[in-house]
Write a structure and sequence with these properties.
Layout (H helix, E strand, L loop, with lengths): L4 E5 L28 E9 L13 H5 L2 H13 L2 E5 H10 L14 H9 L6 E5 L19 E6 L1 H7 L10 E4 L8 H12 L3 E4 L3 H9 L5 E7 L39 E10 L2 E9 L3 H4 L1
Parallel strand pairs: 2-7, 2-8, 3-4, 3-7, 4-5, 5-6
Antiparallel strand pairs: 1-9, 8-10, 9-10
Helix pairs in contact: 2-4
Length: 296
């Protein structure tokens, strides 16, 4: 695996001195807000902005095809108290995991980075899943066994009612209720993560629907974005093999799902750092809140 070439970096430097930073350069974060975690996203996309080929090649790693990007994922997880994901992402990744039929656990695999996480006092790894009123079986997913990470579900009152009968046999699963309707109240959920679990730093790994909802709620502070040196195209070609019942005419997703923004309310981002490894680009952006970019 190659080292990252630093083109520029205007972000904070970690106060922790550790040899693991030699490959990337030191990485630090500002203090979190007083009432919720500091939340940063991590995505990979093609040059033309596609985040998934869909079908059997639907994971981010299929777009990335980069060992450095996979290592960076672990580096960012090492700095976070928890990984935040939409339940649909877990379901999709589980479908892609066959024959490992009970799906993935989103955790650090690099031992050196796992050790660094301990030095950062981040505690046991957490996977936090957001789901409104969806019904699902906890037994279908290995992550809810609690062996590798602490599983947490952010849901609504309806969602809790639908899974309540399963919780006695899954004592490792922590459920936090934020919202009465079909949708999780994300601002409330983030506040509860801080007050009930002491979570100060969160990495949001998607998918595009959760990221879009978090961004529209003003809850994304930073974005780490890997640009993979491929142009993919939005429409799935007829030559691509697709699972039975999945149409090849589907449009591949971009970074943001759901309603977009207008010219007047589109979020403005400060470009904090840029690195490269081979032909892959590794960017870090920090959102500028209303009025900040006009002043700067």
């Amino acid at each position: 695996m190659r080292d990252f070439e630093i083109l520029f970096d205007h972000a904070e430097r970690s106060e922790l001195l550790d040899p693991v930073f030699a490959r990337y350069g030191r990485l630090g974060f500002p203090a979190p807000p007083s009432d919720r975690p500091w939340i940063y996203s991590n995505f990979v996309q093609s040059i033309d902005g596609v985040v998934s080929f869909l079908g059997t090649d639907g994971s981010g790693q299929d777009i990335s095809q980069s060992a450095e990007d996979r290592w960076l994922m672990d580096l960012l997880r090492a700095h976070a108290d928890a990984v935040l994901l939409g339940f649909r992402t877990l379901k999709l990744e589980t479908e892609l995991c066959r024959p490992r039929e009970r799906g993935p656990v989103f955790r650090i695999v690099d031992e050196a980075l796992h050790d660094m996480r301990t030095k950062l006092h981040r505690g046991r790894e957490k996977n936090i899943f957001v789901t409104g009123s969806s019904a699902f079986n906890l037994d279908d997913y290995a992550v809810f066994d609690g062996e590798k990470v602490d599983p947490v579900i952010l849901t609504t009152k309806t969602g809790l009612e639908r899974m309540e009968g399963q919780l006695a046999s899954h004592p490792h699963v922590k459920v936090i209720v934020a919202g009465d309707g079909k949708m999780v109240d994300l601002p409330l959920a983030m506040r509860l993560l801080r007050t009930e679990l002491g979570v100060k730093y969160v990495v949001c790994e998607g998918g595009p629907t959760l990221f879009g909802n978090m961004l529209r709620a003003g809850l994304i502070d930073e974005a780490f974005l890997t640009v993979s040196p491929y142009i993919v195209g939005q429409q799935v070609p007829e030559t691509q093999a697709m699972p039975e019942g999945e149409a090849s005419s589907l449009l591949r997703p971009s970074l943001l799902a759901g309603p977009g923004f207008t010219k007047t309310d589109a979020p403005y981002w400060a470009w904090m750092s840029c690195r490269k490894a081979g032909d892959h680009q590794f960017h870090r952006f920090r959102i500028k809140r209303s009025g900040e970019h006009k002043a700067g």
